[in-house]
Amino acid sequence: MDNTVSNSGGNKTALVKIQRFGNFLSGMVMPNLGVFVAWGILTALFIPTGWIPNDYLGELVSPILTYAMPMLIGYTGGKMIHGNRGGAIGVLATMGVIVGADVTMLSGAMLMGPLAAWLMKKVDGVLDGKFKPGFEMLVSNFSMGILGLIIVIAGYVAIGPVMQGILNVLSGGVNWVLEHKLLPLLSIFVAPAQVLFLNNAINHGIMAPLGLEQVAAAGKSILFLVDPNCGPSVGTLLAVSIFGRGMAKRTAPMAAIIAGIGGIGEVYFPFVLMKPKLVFATMGGMATSLGLFQLLGGGTVATPSPGSFFAMLMLTPRGAMVGNLVGFFAGMAVSFTIGMLLLKTERGGEEEEELADGSLAERAKYNNAVLSQGTQGVSINKIVVACDAGMGSSAMGASILKTQAKKAMLDVEIINTKIEEIPNDTDLIVTHTQLVERAKKLHGDGQKKFMTITNFMEGDQYKDIIAYLKQVKSSVGEERAVVEKKQSTPISKEVLSIDNIRLNQSFDTKEAAIKKAGDILVENGYVKPEYVQSMQEREKTVSVYVGNHVAIPHGTGNSEDLILKSGISILQVPKGVSFGAETAYVLIGIAGKGNSHLEILSKIADFCSDSKNVEKIRQATSEEEILRMLSAIN
Q1: Do 87 and 28 form a contact (C-beta atoms < 8 A)?
Q2: Most exposed among 5, 28, 244, 492, judged by the fewest C-beta atoms under 10 Å?
Q3: Whole-model pTM?
Q4: In angstroms, how far is the first alpha carbon of the chain from the final one?
Q5: Which residue ranges does the record assign to the PTS EIIC type-2 domain (predicted)?
Q6: Do the beta carbons of residue 424 and residue 334 sit within 8 Å?
Q7: Domain that holds residue 587
Q8: Cα separation of 260 and 249, whole Å?
């Protein structure tokens, strides 16, 4: 038993290390993907085999590939290690291997950029504090100059030729695989690696450098379609949509659209993690696609990223369109068929996959651990939804969590990012069960909380997080009440009087509505006139719309000096006022001196969390009616 646990822990550690290494490689490429796409379109259009051949414009292709793209990667890799200083020496080091080799040095840039920056960081650490004030700039410039000289010469004389030799061996291996029609066998390794969040490592760390070598020689490469081809994963999702069960069946159609059109492949991973045998469906579809791409002369001129159907078409050169279309749809059909057979042959008595899924049990383990710690002394102001690349899946997850937090009247900042770039001031990190150990290793400081999900786009999985945030909010309110030695009391006339309420208001803009809410507070002696501008600044920074057709305008964090005493204003806007895509019918202006208004605000928030109560305020015919409703809250 102990050996099993030990092996499991070792496997997780190894997976985390592989993920981190792969993510580091992709981290050098992904910030520059727009440049790669621009170069890819340029190539697809203007090279001799392109859609509209043009010798003059085609002259741009080779210099961008040879110099600009490796130098961008070298700079990005260096910056990841040692900021702008690391990026600068990373470019210099990359130039050495570019000139020292006769092949495109993307792989060389991935080595030299971080290596040069790491050496620069070590040198800076040794020299830090060793010289008198006034000599810092001199030492800084000459230390980089001397180290840069050594590294660029080393790259030119030794490392460049070595990297060229390695690339020649790898290219020879790829050519051997292609000549012997063995490319479909890559699906055996790539399909399982995808769902372990190693897709970016495969795509940008391995296939892209080799693929660009082929583009330089042949004008296209099939290697760009090994991972980004979404046809097989869409086919698997369509099979789940029709023949699956439970929550998986209900969410798979939207996941198929997002994967196929949006190119966010991560939405497919949870369905395979819930039912691992489905990886064989994707594997079969991928092998079919690769076989047909090779047979019919498919390929693209750059990595389709995001890996959507339309991105693939945009980067397809003339002469490869038929092969790409046939391979894409054939792979989708095969994966759909295999997925259908796998799902239809299940035992009739099997429980829904959600109930038996080990990853869901792991999610419950992490989340229950956080919930069991209690909320005393806990404050959650910033939440980060993190994924491997910090783009598609975490962006969707953050959007879903923001929507649910607004409906629950929770005032928290929610952003998304890649795991390596989670800010230090984060209070709660939300990520996938497959990624949480990596996140803990990088950011586990004993202060941050970690909660997990198994599907970024499944709204129900965020309920645990919302429940926890409500507990924290309630606990904070109780602690403040104890500190202030207050009992729950009705809303006092000093904070909200009939003079603070306005009916039948109409506004063309949200700015006008916020100004009116602030003007009432000014007129009744709660705030200084400058506080109104602070309310406008708050809306520019973080929307004061909180959901359920309610907005709560208030000042920024540094505006307390502009508040004379706590007060609340109420605006009834029957026809509504637009807050972006949302409409507010009720605005509650807030000015809080100290914490005296927080209990009242909490009560109003709870009251407005019920849409029926918001509608009552919207339909009220007198100020007294609204005041009675809010005064009755206890």
Answers
A1: no
A2: 5
A3: 0.55
A4: 55
A5: 21-344
A6: no
A7: 498-633
A8: 17
* 14 pLDDT tier (thresholds 50, 70, 90): low
Bigger pLDDT: 93 vs 486: 93
DSSP character at residue 168: H
Same domain, 283 and 362: no
Q: In this structure, what token pair is assigned to residue 559?
A: 């505006």
**Separation between Cα atoms, residue 108 and residue 503, nearest integer Å:** 68
Q: Please count the other Cβ atoms lying within 10 Å of the Cβ belonging to residue 239.
A: 25
Task: Residue 302: name the closest of 356, 221, 417 by CA.
Answer: 221
Please give the mean pLDDT across all residues of the chain. Answer: 82
Q: Is the pLDDT of residue 222 over 70?
A: yes
Strand order in the sheet with 545-547: 501-502, 567-579, 582-591, 550-551, 545-547
Distances (CA, A) of 479 to 382, 426, 582, 598: 20, 22, 34, 12
User: What is d(CA 100, CA 162) in angstroms, rounded to the nearest whole number?
Assistant: 9
Catalytically active residues are 387, 554
Neighbour-count burial for 211-228, b at 16+ CB within 10 Å, e otherwise? bbbbbbeebbbbbbbbbb
Q: How many domains does the chain have?
A: 3
The domain spanning residue 455 has which CATH number? 3.40.50.2300
Q: Band the pLDDT of 215: cuts 50, 70, 90.
A: confident
Q: Report if residue 484 sits inside a domain.
A: no
8 strand-pairing partners: none
